[in-house]
């Protein structure tokens, strides 16, 4: 009969893109940044949801899945074969990261101190890798990168290193607004910028 690993060892195994990282003096179970070798774009969120960390993949909630399907439909990357978008995104040289590495249920659970702490790391990483397009799923990353939340769509201001920033429409925005805003991204991608 084979040896059965004890419960502690089983619980220590990481799945998907799970990672243990030091965050503001504490070790947290989170989702690792997913960096393409030569990034064309990065999808930036505020922080990972517990449901995403649990399975080790970005945007596993209903809202997150809907937002990623909109990005696939706009042409940022191809449609995945299942619930996980990282493979399709990486094939298109698109990656994933968050400002705050500590998982929480929503923005109300994330402190301003955590956003400040993660902002410097985020901008340093994006700049060092020469990321030219940053897709912000929600408003927080836009404010971190450009100083204000802006409105949904391609932002007129660029980052200090010249990257374009696209803010997605809200997950519950009116259909006509979503279509208009997402067509901005499609046109930008079609132009090959």
UniProtKB/TrEMBL annotation:
Domain named Uracil-DNA glycosylase-like: residues: 36-147
Top-level taxon in the UniProt lineage: Bacteria
Leader peptide range in chain numbering: none
Pfam family, one: UDG
Gene3D superfamilies: Uracil-DNA glycosylase-like domain
Name of this protein: Uracil-DNA glycosylase-like domain-containing protein
